[in-house]
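Section: protein folds

Sequence with per-residue C-alpha coordinates
===
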Amino acid sequence: MEKIYAALLCVVSLLSCSAQRQEEKDNNQRLWYDRPAQHWLEALPLGNSRMGAMVYGGITEEEIQLNEETFWSGGPHNNNSTSSLKYLDEVRRLIFAGKEVEAEQIVNREFFPGPHGMKYLTLGSLKIISDSIGQPLNFMRDLNLKDATAEVSFDIEGVTYSRKAFASMADGVVVVQLKASKKGALSFLLDHQVNYENTVTADGKSLLAVIKGVGHEGISSVLTAQCRTDVDCDGTVSVEQIDERQALRIEGATTVTLLISAATNFVNYHDVTGDAAAKNERYLSAAHVFSFDELLNRHIAKYQTLYNRVELSLGDKTPNYDLNTYDRLEGFNTTLASQPDLGMVELMDAISLSLLHREKTVSLPTCKVSGTTRPMLHGTANTLLISMPR
Protein backbone atom coordinates (compact mmCIF):
# COMPACT_ATOMS: atom_id res chain seq x y z
CA MET A 1 0.00 0.00 0.00
CA GLU A 2 2.85 2.37 0.88
CA LYS A 3 4.47 1.63 -2.51
CA ILE A 4 1.20 2.43 -4.32
CA TYR A 5 0.85 5.65 -2.34
CA ALA A 6 4.43 6.65 -3.13
CA ALA A 7 3.88 5.90 -6.82
CA LEU A 8 0.73 8.04 -6.87
CA LEU A 9 2.60 10.89 -5.22
CA CYS A 10 5.30 10.58 -7.86
CA VAL A 11 2.76 10.70 -10.70
CA VAL A 12 1.00 13.72 -9.17
CA SER A 13 4.36 15.42 -8.73
CA LEU A 14 5.32 14.79 -12.35
CA LEU A 15 1.96 16.07 -13.60
CA SER A 16 2.30 19.13 -11.41
CA CYS A 17 5.79 19.81 -12.74
CA SER A 18 4.55 19.36 -16.30
CA ALA A 19 1.66 21.73 -15.73
CA GLN A 20 4.02 24.23 -14.11
CA ARG A 21 6.38 24.10 -17.09
CA GLN A 22 3.43 24.68 -19.43
CA GLU A 23 2.18 27.50 -17.25
CA GLU A 24 5.57 29.21 -17.49
CA LYS A 25 5.11 29.57 -21.25
CA ASP A 26 3.87 33.14 -21.70
CA ASN A 27 2.18 33.33 -25.10
CA ASN A 28 2.45 37.11 -25.05
CA GLN A 29 6.23 36.64 -24.97
CA ARG A 30 6.47 33.67 -27.28
CA LEU A 31 6.03 32.65 -30.92
CA TRP A 32 4.85 29.07 -31.19
CA TYR A 33 3.68 26.79 -34.01
CA ASP A 34 2.22 23.34 -34.48
CA ARG A 35 4.19 22.45 -37.60
CA PRO A 36 7.71 22.92 -38.99
CA ALA A 37 8.68 25.96 -41.05
CA GLN A 38 8.03 25.49 -44.75
CA HIS A 39 10.35 28.29 -45.91
CA TRP A 40 12.86 30.84 -44.61
CA LEU A 41 10.33 33.43 -43.45
CA GLU A 42 8.70 30.86 -41.15
CA ALA A 43 11.96 29.81 -39.49
CA LEU A 44 12.78 31.15 -36.02
CA PRO A 45 15.66 33.66 -35.70
CA LEU A 46 18.45 33.52 -33.15
CA GLY A 47 21.49 35.77 -32.90
CA ASN A 48 24.09 37.28 -30.60
CA SER A 49 25.43 40.20 -32.71
CA ARG A 50 28.29 38.01 -34.01
CA MET A 51 26.39 35.05 -35.44
CA GLY A 52 22.83 34.48 -36.62
CA ALA A 53 20.76 31.31 -37.08
CA MET A 54 17.37 30.47 -38.57
CA VAL A 55 15.86 27.33 -37.03
CA TYR A 56 13.29 25.53 -39.21
CA GLY A 57 12.13 22.89 -36.72
CA GLY A 58 12.01 19.96 -39.14
CA ILE A 59 11.13 16.48 -37.91
CA THR A 60 13.33 14.00 -39.77
CA GLU A 61 15.44 16.80 -41.25
CA GLU A 62 16.24 19.86 -39.20
CA GLU A 63 17.79 22.86 -40.95
CA ILE A 64 19.71 25.58 -39.15
CA GLN A 65 20.76 28.29 -41.59
CA LEU A 66 23.77 30.26 -40.35
CA ASN A 67 25.59 33.52 -40.92
CA GLU A 68 28.39 35.57 -39.38
CA GLU A 69 28.66 39.34 -39.13
CA THR A 70 31.76 39.82 -41.32
CA PHE A 71 30.94 37.50 -44.23
CA TRP A 72 30.13 39.79 -47.14
CA SER A 73 30.67 39.69 -50.88
CA GLY A 74 33.48 41.61 -52.59
CA GLY A 75 36.36 43.25 -50.75
CA PRO A 76 37.89 46.60 -49.76
CA HIS A 77 37.24 49.36 -52.29
CA ASN A 78 36.23 53.00 -52.54
CA ASN A 79 32.81 53.62 -54.04
CA ASN A 80 32.84 57.39 -53.69
CA SER A 81 32.19 59.14 -57.02
CA THR A 82 35.15 61.04 -58.46
CA SER A 83 33.01 63.14 -60.81
CA SER A 84 30.12 64.31 -58.64
CA LEU A 85 31.68 67.54 -57.35
CA LYS A 86 31.66 69.29 -60.74
CA TYR A 87 27.90 68.67 -61.05
CA LEU A 88 27.00 69.99 -57.60
CA ASP A 89 26.31 73.61 -58.64
CA GLU A 90 24.13 72.44 -61.55
CA VAL A 91 22.10 70.17 -59.24
CA ARG A 92 21.56 73.06 -56.82
CA ARG A 93 20.51 75.39 -59.64
CA LEU A 94 17.95 72.87 -60.95
CA ILE A 95 16.48 72.29 -57.49
CA PHE A 96 16.02 76.01 -56.81
CA ALA A 97 14.49 76.32 -60.27
CA GLY A 98 11.90 73.71 -59.37
CA LYS A 99 13.35 71.15 -61.76
CA GLU A 100 13.76 68.34 -59.23
CA VAL A 101 13.35 65.54 -61.80
CA GLU A 102 16.29 66.81 -63.87
CA ALA A 103 18.35 67.24 -60.71
CA GLU A 104 17.53 63.70 -59.61
CA GLN A 105 18.64 62.28 -62.94
CA ILE A 106 22.05 63.93 -62.63
CA VAL A 107 22.43 62.78 -59.02
CA ASN A 108 21.57 59.19 -59.89
CA ARG A 109 23.97 59.17 -62.83
CA GLU A 110 26.94 61.08 -61.42
CA PHE A 111 26.73 60.83 -57.61
CA PHE A 112 25.87 57.14 -57.31
CA PRO A 113 27.40 55.38 -60.33
CA GLY A 114 28.11 52.20 -58.37
CA PRO A 115 29.11 49.86 -56.96
CA HIS A 116 26.36 50.46 -54.42
CA GLY A 117 27.53 48.18 -51.64
CA MET A 118 28.25 44.56 -51.00
CA LYS A 119 25.68 41.91 -50.08
CA TYR A 120 25.53 39.88 -46.90
CA LEU A 121 26.37 36.19 -47.40
CA THR A 122 25.07 33.03 -45.78
CA LEU A 123 27.23 30.28 -44.32
CA GLY A 124 24.81 27.70 -45.69
CA SER A 125 22.82 25.30 -43.55
CA LEU A 126 23.64 22.76 -40.92
CA LYS A 127 21.37 19.77 -41.58
CA ILE A 128 20.40 17.24 -38.90
CA ILE A 129 19.05 14.29 -40.87
CA SER A 130 17.45 11.82 -38.48
CA ASP A 131 17.08 8.08 -38.83
CA SER A 132 13.80 8.21 -36.91
CA ILE A 133 10.72 7.08 -38.81
CA GLY A 134 7.04 7.05 -37.89
CA GLN A 135 4.17 9.46 -37.50
CA PRO A 136 5.05 12.42 -35.24
CA LEU A 137 2.62 13.47 -32.53
CA ASN A 138 2.38 16.50 -30.23
CA PHE A 139 4.61 18.65 -32.44
CA MET A 140 5.58 22.06 -31.09
CA ARG A 141 8.23 24.60 -31.98
CA ASP A 142 8.64 28.00 -30.39
CA LEU A 143 10.81 31.05 -29.88
CA ASN A 144 10.77 32.24 -26.29
CA LEU A 145 11.43 35.97 -26.35
CA LYS A 146 12.07 36.08 -22.60
CA ASP A 147 15.28 34.08 -22.91
CA ALA A 148 15.97 34.07 -26.68
CA THR A 149 15.81 30.29 -27.06
CA ALA A 150 14.18 28.20 -29.78
CA GLU A 151 12.73 24.77 -28.97
CA VAL A 152 11.30 21.89 -30.98
CA SER A 153 9.63 18.79 -29.55
CA PHE A 154 7.55 15.88 -30.85
CA ASP A 155 6.80 12.22 -30.12
CA ILE A 156 7.49 9.27 -32.43
CA GLU A 157 6.54 5.73 -31.40
CA GLY A 158 6.48 6.59 -27.71
CA VAL A 159 9.80 8.48 -27.70
CA THR A 160 9.92 12.23 -27.09
CA TYR A 161 12.51 14.07 -29.15
CA SER A 162 13.46 17.63 -28.25
CA ARG A 163 15.90 20.29 -29.40
CA LYS A 164 16.86 23.56 -27.76
CA ALA A 165 18.97 26.19 -29.49
CA PHE A 166 20.32 29.63 -28.65
CA ALA A 167 22.97 32.05 -29.90
CA SER A 168 24.89 32.77 -26.73
CA MET A 169 25.06 36.43 -25.82
CA ALA A 170 27.75 35.61 -23.26
CA ASP A 171 30.01 33.23 -25.19
CA GLY A 172 29.54 34.18 -28.85
CA VAL A 173 28.66 30.71 -30.17
CA VAL A 174 25.46 29.02 -31.36
CA VAL A 175 24.49 26.12 -29.12
CA VAL A 176 22.07 23.30 -30.00
CA GLN A 177 21.13 20.38 -27.74
CA LEU A 178 19.18 17.34 -28.92
CA LYS A 179 17.63 14.91 -26.44
CA ALA A 180 15.58 11.71 -26.54
CA SER A 181 13.46 10.31 -23.71
CA LYS A 182 14.65 6.79 -24.56
CA LYS A 183 18.26 5.84 -24.01
CA GLY A 184 20.25 5.62 -27.24
CA ALA A 185 17.33 6.71 -29.46
CA LEU A 186 19.19 9.54 -31.22
CA SER A 187 20.83 8.60 -34.53
CA PHE A 188 21.35 11.15 -37.29
CA LEU A 189 23.65 12.54 -39.94
CA LEU A 190 25.18 15.97 -39.32
CA ASP A 191 25.76 17.61 -42.69
CA HIS A 192 26.78 21.14 -43.70
CA GLN A 193 25.42 22.24 -47.09
CA VAL A 194 26.51 25.44 -48.85
CA ASN A 195 25.64 26.92 -52.26
CA TYR A 196 28.91 28.85 -52.64
CA GLU A 197 32.29 27.30 -53.44
CA ASN A 198 33.24 25.31 -50.35
CA THR A 199 34.91 22.32 -48.76
CA VAL A 200 33.45 20.42 -45.80
CA THR A 201 35.69 18.09 -43.83
CA ALA A 202 35.26 16.10 -40.62
CA ASP A 203 37.90 15.43 -38.00
CA GLY A 204 37.03 13.37 -34.94
CA LYS A 205 34.02 15.15 -33.46
CA SER A 206 34.28 18.37 -35.49
CA LEU A 207 32.74 19.38 -38.81
CA LEU A 208 34.46 22.23 -40.67
CA ALA A 209 33.02 24.13 -43.62
CA VAL A 210 35.40 26.48 -45.46
CA ILE A 211 33.34 28.82 -47.66
CA LYS A 212 34.70 31.17 -50.30
CA GLY A 213 32.93 34.48 -50.74
CA VAL A 214 31.62 35.81 -54.05
CA GLY A 215 32.31 38.91 -56.12
CA HIS A 216 29.68 41.60 -56.51
CA GLU A 217 29.20 44.57 -58.86
CA GLY A 218 32.67 44.06 -60.32
CA ILE A 219 34.42 43.81 -56.94
CA SER A 220 36.33 40.54 -56.52
CA SER A 221 35.85 38.47 -53.39
CA VAL A 222 38.63 38.45 -50.81
CA LEU A 223 36.77 36.95 -47.86
CA THR A 224 36.70 33.31 -46.83
CA ALA A 225 34.58 32.03 -43.95
CA GLN A 226 35.13 29.02 -41.72
CA CYS A 227 32.21 27.50 -39.82
CA ARG A 228 33.12 24.82 -37.28
CA THR A 229 30.68 22.59 -35.43
CA ASP A 230 31.90 20.57 -32.44
CA VAL A 231 29.91 17.54 -31.25
CA ASP A 232 29.65 16.37 -27.65
CA CYS A 233 27.49 13.28 -27.14
CA ASP A 234 27.09 9.99 -25.26
CA GLY A 235 26.84 7.96 -28.48
CA THR A 236 29.30 7.12 -31.24
CA VAL A 237 30.57 9.61 -33.83
CA SER A 238 32.05 8.59 -37.18
CA VAL A 239 32.97 10.30 -40.46
CA GLU A 240 30.81 9.69 -43.52
CA GLN A 241 31.63 10.66 -47.09
CA ILE A 242 28.84 12.32 -49.12
CA ASP A 243 29.88 13.06 -52.71
CA GLU A 244 32.85 15.43 -52.37
CA ARG A 245 32.18 16.51 -48.79
CA GLN A 246 32.30 14.81 -45.41
CA ALA A 247 29.67 14.62 -42.69
CA LEU A 248 29.41 13.21 -39.17
CA ARG A 249 27.27 10.19 -38.30
CA ILE A 250 25.98 10.14 -34.69
CA GLU A 251 24.48 6.87 -33.46
CA GLY A 252 22.99 5.49 -30.25
CA ALA A 253 22.97 8.78 -28.34
CA THR A 254 20.57 10.09 -25.72
CA THR A 255 21.93 13.65 -25.55
CA VAL A 256 23.91 15.52 -28.19
CA THR A 257 25.26 19.06 -27.84
CA LEU A 258 26.52 21.07 -30.80
CA LEU A 259 28.76 24.12 -30.40
CA ILE A 260 28.97 26.24 -33.57
CA SER A 261 31.39 29.07 -34.29
CA ALA A 262 32.12 30.97 -37.51
CA ALA A 263 34.65 33.61 -38.54
CA THR A 264 36.32 35.12 -41.61
CA ASN A 265 39.67 36.70 -42.48
CA PHE A 266 38.10 40.18 -42.01
CA VAL A 267 39.98 42.47 -39.61
CA ASN A 268 38.76 45.93 -40.64
CA TYR A 269 37.66 47.77 -43.78
CA HIS A 270 41.15 47.72 -45.33
CA ASP A 271 42.68 44.62 -43.69
CA VAL A 272 41.54 41.10 -44.62
CA THR A 273 44.50 39.13 -43.24
CA GLY A 274 42.68 37.71 -40.22
CA ASP A 275 42.91 34.09 -39.06
CA ALA A 276 39.40 32.58 -39.07
CA ALA A 277 40.53 29.22 -37.70
CA ALA A 278 42.28 30.82 -34.72
CA LYS A 279 39.24 32.94 -33.93
CA ASN A 280 36.95 29.91 -33.99
CA GLU A 281 39.35 28.00 -31.76
CA ARG A 282 39.28 30.79 -29.18
CA TYR A 283 35.48 30.89 -29.06
CA LEU A 284 35.02 27.11 -28.97
CA SER A 285 37.78 26.42 -26.46
CA ALA A 286 36.23 28.96 -24.10
CA ALA A 287 32.73 27.50 -24.58
CA HIS A 288 33.85 23.90 -24.02
CA VAL A 289 34.71 24.78 -20.42
CA PHE A 290 31.01 24.99 -19.59
CA SER A 291 28.21 22.42 -19.60
CA PHE A 292 25.09 23.02 -21.70
CA ASP A 293 23.13 24.23 -18.67
CA GLU A 294 25.94 26.59 -17.70
CA LEU A 295 26.12 28.00 -21.23
CA LEU A 296 22.34 28.45 -21.23
CA ASN A 297 22.31 30.21 -17.86
CA ARG A 298 25.17 32.49 -18.88
CA HIS A 299 23.33 33.40 -22.08
CA ILE A 300 20.00 34.10 -20.33
CA ALA A 301 21.66 36.23 -17.64
CA LYS A 302 23.41 38.36 -20.25
CA TYR A 303 20.36 38.67 -22.50
CA GLN A 304 17.92 39.55 -19.73
CA THR A 305 20.03 42.45 -18.47
CA LEU A 306 18.82 44.15 -21.64
CA TYR A 307 15.46 42.54 -22.37
CA ASN A 308 14.04 42.90 -18.85
CA ARG A 309 14.49 46.66 -18.79
CA VAL A 310 11.11 47.20 -20.50
CA GLU A 311 7.79 45.41 -20.15
CA LEU A 312 4.42 46.18 -21.75
CA SER A 313 1.20 44.89 -20.17
CA LEU A 314 -2.20 45.70 -21.69
CA GLY A 315 -4.52 43.75 -19.43
CA ASP A 316 -5.77 40.22 -18.82
CA LYS A 317 -5.45 37.24 -21.16
CA THR A 318 -7.65 37.41 -24.23
CA PRO A 319 -9.69 34.51 -25.70
CA ASN A 320 -7.05 33.92 -28.40
CA TYR A 321 -4.19 33.69 -25.90
CA ASP A 322 -3.78 29.92 -26.22
CA LEU A 323 -3.84 29.81 -30.03
CA ASN A 324 -0.66 29.07 -31.96
CA THR A 325 0.84 32.12 -33.61
CA TYR A 326 -0.50 31.29 -37.08
CA ASP A 327 -4.12 31.13 -35.84
CA ARG A 328 -3.69 33.97 -33.39
CA LEU A 329 -2.44 36.28 -36.14
CA GLU A 330 -5.40 35.35 -38.34
CA GLY A 331 -7.78 36.01 -35.46
CA PHE A 332 -6.10 39.32 -34.71
CA ASN A 333 -6.65 40.51 -38.26
CA THR A 334 -10.30 39.41 -38.42
CA THR A 335 -11.50 40.51 -34.96
CA LEU A 336 -9.46 43.68 -34.54
CA ALA A 337 -12.47 45.98 -34.41
CA SER A 338 -14.88 43.82 -32.41
CA GLN A 339 -12.56 42.08 -29.93
CA PRO A 340 -8.95 43.28 -30.14
CA ASP A 341 -6.30 40.84 -28.94
CA LEU A 342 -4.18 43.25 -26.91
CA GLY A 343 -1.92 40.38 -25.93
CA MET A 344 -0.92 40.17 -29.58
CA VAL A 345 0.13 43.81 -29.36
CA GLU A 346 2.26 42.87 -26.35
CA LEU A 347 3.81 40.09 -28.43
CA MET A 348 4.62 42.46 -31.30
CA ASP A 349 6.22 44.84 -28.85
CA ALA A 350 8.21 41.98 -27.30
CA ILE A 351 9.57 41.03 -30.73
CA SER A 352 10.80 44.55 -31.41
CA LEU A 353 12.32 44.81 -27.94
CA SER A 354 14.03 41.46 -28.34
CA LEU A 355 15.64 42.50 -31.62
CA LEU A 356 16.58 45.92 -30.27
CA HIS A 357 18.01 44.82 -26.92
CA ARG A 358 20.04 42.02 -28.39
CA GLU A 359 21.91 44.59 -30.53
CA LYS A 360 21.91 43.29 -34.10
CA THR A 361 20.71 40.09 -32.53
CA VAL A 362 20.11 38.30 -35.82
CA SER A 363 23.55 39.29 -36.99
CA LEU A 364 22.87 42.45 -38.96
CA PRO A 365 26.36 43.98 -39.11
CA THR A 366 27.62 47.29 -40.38
CA CYS A 367 29.56 46.70 -43.58
CA LYS A 368 33.11 48.01 -43.43
CA VAL A 369 34.43 45.77 -46.18
CA SER A 370 32.97 47.98 -48.90
CA GLY A 371 34.11 51.22 -47.30
CA THR A 372 30.56 52.18 -46.36
CA THR A 373 28.40 51.89 -43.27
CA ARG A 374 25.41 50.46 -45.09
CA PRO A 375 23.60 47.52 -43.47
CA MET A 376 22.55 44.95 -46.06
CA LEU A 377 19.54 42.67 -45.59
CA HIS A 378 20.78 39.60 -47.45
CA GLY A 379 21.35 37.39 -44.38
CA THR A 380 19.26 36.13 -41.48
CA ALA A 381 18.41 39.58 -40.25
CA ASN A 382 15.40 40.71 -42.20
CA THR A 383 12.66 38.73 -40.49
CA LEU A 384 9.50 39.68 -38.59
CA LEU A 385 7.77 36.37 -38.12
CA ILE A 386 4.60 37.86 -36.73
CA SER A 387 3.68 39.31 -40.14
CA MET A 388 3.90 36.12 -42.19
CA PRO A 389 0.82 34.98 -44.15
CA ARG A 390 -0.78 31.62 -43.62
Remarks:
- The chain has two domains: 32-74+120-308+359-387, 80-113.
- Confidence is low (pLDDT under 50) at residues 1-23, 360-390.
- Residues 80-113 form one domain.
